[in-house]
Write a structure and sequence with these properties.
The structure is a single chain. The chain has a domain of 70 residues. The chain has 2 helices and 8 strands.
């Protein structure tokens, strides 16, 4: 069990930080089979570089393409314990540096 009381879960040979994250992955796989999304990526990483200095990184849970619009979607599976001040700051930095709106999935 983690500091956020999540239980690591394995699905299709992939270990996820929580049952909720594994469940969301299963949903995305179904959506991909149905043709709604494509190109699912796990744990995409974004370096947080400000004024030429790396001050950290943000690792999302999922990134995929909306099949209808072609737009990239970046998701982070959250609960009340994992929506921390650090996450909120990183979310703002990703928006400022990459113009990406992180979708929080509850």
């Amino acid at each position: 069990m983690s500091k956020y009381f999540n239980v690591k879960t394995e699905l299709h040979g992939v270990t996820f930080a929580s049952q909720k994250e594994a469940g969301r992955y299963q949903e995305l796989l179904w959506m991909q089979r149905a043709g709604f999304v494509r190109n699912i990526e796990l744990q995409p990483r974004y370096d947080l570089v400000v004024n030429g200095k790396k001050c950290g990184f943000y690792k999302a849970d999922f990134r995929y393409e909306d099949a209808k619009t072609g737009n990239a979607v970046v998701e982070d599976v959250k609960n009340e314990n994992t929506r921390t001040a650090v996450f909120a700051l990183k979310k703002k930095l990703v928006k400022a540096l990459y113009d990406i709106d992180i979708v929080e999935v509850y």
